[in-house]
Design a protein that fits this description.
Blueprint (H helix, E strand, L loop, with lengths): L13 H23 L2 H17 L10 H18 L1 H5 L11 E4 L4 E4 L7 H20 L2 H12 L4 H8 L3 H23 L1
Antiparallel strand pairs: 1-2
Helix pairs in contact: 1-2, 1-3, 2-3, 3-7, 5-8, 6-8, 7-8
GO molecular function: DNA binding; sigma factor activity
Family: Belongs to the sigma-70 factor family. ECF subfamily.
Pfam families: Sigma70_r2, Sigma70_r4_2
């Protein structure tokens, strides 16, 4: 569905909201999960994001994609939630599973898995490597971890990430390069 008309909208109907949720619900939920590491909190935050989008559609100016706008709302809502007393007192810390992507350690890129039928042993080893690499990514400082997720998983451009995070495009490029180098170095150290 083309959402360009929303840049002029003051309100949206339930059908449009439902379409937005269908098209971007997984992205919003996954990003909320990445930021909180909790399925319950990601569920709550995703609902809150779409409530805010529904009631605040007049603030969407069309200067970025709808996806970027929704991810920005997700980020801001999560950071507000993190400051709340409930969040600070809750217990969370499960790791984020990745079952549908592999990370190419030499290039620091995520790619969809190929449609092949590996042996059970090869599949177990592959999953172990993916989890190890994801553990490395999750251990990075927030500023690197978040950039990798936005760039690799959500395929946002450098400009979109810069606008979303309120930093320059040059800073985004620099941090992405350093983040990939850190992942590559730690992976090589573990593999020795």
């Amino acid at each position: 569905m083309d959402y360009q008309y929303l840049a002029q909208a003051q309100t949206i109907d339930n059908y449009t909201l439902s379409s937005m949720m269908d098209d971007y619900g997984n992205d919003v939920w996954n990003y909320a999960y990445f930021l909180t590491k909790s399925t319950e909190q990601a569920d709550e935050l995703s609902q809150e994001v779409f409530i805010r989008a529904y009631s605040g559609i007049a603030h969407f100016r069309g200067e970025c994609s709808l996806k970027t706008w929704l991810l920005t709302i997700t980020r801001n809502t999560t950071f507000t939630y993190r400051k709340s007393r409930f969040f600070r007192s809750s217990l969370w810390g499960e790791t984020l599973p990745i079952h549908t992507e592999q990370v190419n350690a030499s290039q620091g890129e995520m790619k969809p898995e190929k449609w092949v039928h590996p042996s059970a042993e090869a599949e177990a080893i592959s999953r172990e490597h993916v989890h190890e690499i994801w553990d490395i990514i999750m251990a990075l400082p927030d500023k690197f971890r978040e950039l990798l997720l936005l760039h690799l998983k959500y395929e946002l451009t450098t400009g979109e990430i810069a606008e979303m995070l309120g930093i320059s495009a040059g800073t985004v490029k620099s941090r992405l390069s350093r983040a990939k180098a850190k992942v590559r170095k730690q992976w090589e150290e573990r593999s020795e």
